[in-house]
Amino acid sequence: MLETDPRFKVFRGAFIQSISDQRAEFIPDGLVLVASAGEDCGRIVAMGETARVAAAYGLELKDESPGQGTHVAGDLWLPAFFDTHFHWVQDAVREMAKYSLIEWLNNITFPEEAKFADAAFADRQAKQFWESILSLGTVGGLCYSSIHEVALDAAMQWAPADFYIGNVLMTMECPDYLQQSEADAIAIVQSCARRYGRRYIASPRFAPTTAPAVMRAAAEAAQANAAFQQTHLGETLAEIDWVLDIYRKLPGFEDVGSYTEIYQRVGMLGEQSVFGHCIHLTADEWRLLAESGSRIASCPTSNAPVENMGLGSGLFDYPTAEAYGVPWSLASDIGGGPYLSMFDVMHSFVWQNRAIGRADATYTKALHRATSQGAKLMDLPDRGVLREGAFFDAIRLRMPQGQFTAGDAEPILAAFFEQIPDRKSTETLVQETFVKGESRFKRGASTCD
Ligand SMILES: [Zn+2]
Prior knowledge:
Elements: E1 8-18, E2 24-35, E3 44-49, H1 50-56, E4 75-79, E5 81-87, H2 101-114, H3 119-135, E6 138-145, H4 149-158, E7 163-169, H5 182-196, E8 203-204, H6 212-224, E9 229-233, H7 237-247, H8 259-265, E10 273-277, H9 283-292, E11 295-298, H10 300-303, H11 318-324, E12 328-330, H12 342-355, H13 363-370, H14 372-377, E13 394-398, E14 407-408, H15 410-418, E15 432-435, E16 438-442
Helix pairs in contact: 3-4, 5-6, 12-13
The structure holds zinc ion (ZN).
The site of zinc ion (ZN) has 6 residues, from strand 5.
């Protein structure tokens, strides 16, 4: 066993460290020391080969007995996930059959979101949802709530601290039962921004349903708090025709050139703005995003063909995003995406991109984009990454069958994904979730807090 040392929590097992799009490192017998007190509490003090780290810190290794902290033979540790675009109020409808974006919103999504006007219902749903997300290994992200302030309050109460949440703003082109007046929408944004500070993310649903004055007020509230903004952009071609048709009839937008330009004119582009989807963009739009430092959450399971339980919107062109230098990360977009597990999202990213010949769409890249790049999109550079100095945000899994050598982690990642029996079972892969060095979910335990 490891000699106890009160300064550290000690984790021993096989680790995968995500380093870049091209590189993930497999450490078959690794040791991680996490500061257990002081100002670095929860941060990784040392990480590497067990023998080397133990020697450097004078920890005595005695074989065969369980170590201090968490060590079970057959454990595989990965960095925890950040999901940068999802709708918690669509959890109940995510697995339903889909046809296309606009029908999905009108027939399925909007009636479901309307239920969240009821505070007691919202509170029950929130408790269940935010407990379950930690069981999937997702420890932070960007989230849309319904229009209702009571549902936002419930989500803020139950969600872990590293989820930024906003109520959608809908003031036109939507059913009466989900439509706010412009004055009400602006008042809610301003009061929630005051109440929740940076955790409140201004969230116009998308330009077709949100009046320009409301988007402008939301952008100003976000900027005053140095907080994030989010909305949807360029998801389907029908949506783009619709939005331009609406806006070219509005005063001040008669000559608007593109969907992205609408957001530019209301002050929504910028480094703390995250746009969902961005599948169908022109070169001018890519330039606007790049020049403003705007960021993208890409949702491959939601955009996948309808026979794969997506909305059939298309495939995100990540090579173009990277050529323009636009930061992007992976996201589940539930309920557009059918499963909340980022394993399902990563798998979808790999198979869809490989199917069209993008050979660099590896599991290594998917892992990078589902973990540290998601955290980075939220300006959290020391989260979702296993390296010295970063917080210990990690998930514990079972090792896949096979023989794997130290070094390049792509073979073990590929084996792990190949051994997942079906999409639904991605919901039970995580055995334990750690957030900043604290266990926040353990499979088989009666509760998780
Ligand atoms: Zn969405």
